[in-house]
Amino acid sequence: MSKLVVVGISDQQVACPPDSLITYALGSCVGICLFDTMRRISGLAHVLLPQAINGCNRNEVYKFADTAVEELVKSMESRGCARLHIVAKIAGGANMFATTGRSIGERNIEVVKSELKRLNIRLLAEDTGANYGRTVEFDTQKGSMIIKTAGKGNKIF
Is residue 33 annotated as a catalytic residue, yes or no? Predict the structure, then answer.
């Protein structure tokens, strides 16, 4: 029997089929879904901010995009995944409030993409930006990311 594994803000989880991963309330936050195409192991992180200024303690590693992506990859590798087979899908990074300059959401997206590139993780799909929140569910069996939005319908990547 499958279960829905919930990923909180500044958190991450790794799961295998038939379980699914889900995170709620992605506004300016970014959800990073990683999927090992060979082992069918998946990971999901919910990052709050782009960068850890002056470092971060072990309890905050998933709060920041510049530390969370690598730590999620390491979590998957510790379960037998090979970086060569890991691909990514991301969602979130909305500009929820009128701002001048680059919003936190835009900066989160930029840092997540930069970290994926640095780690040689291919980005297959994204649903980022705009001005609305998202819920992300990741189907570990199919490797698909389901985006749920109020008033905007659902999307599958």
Answer: no
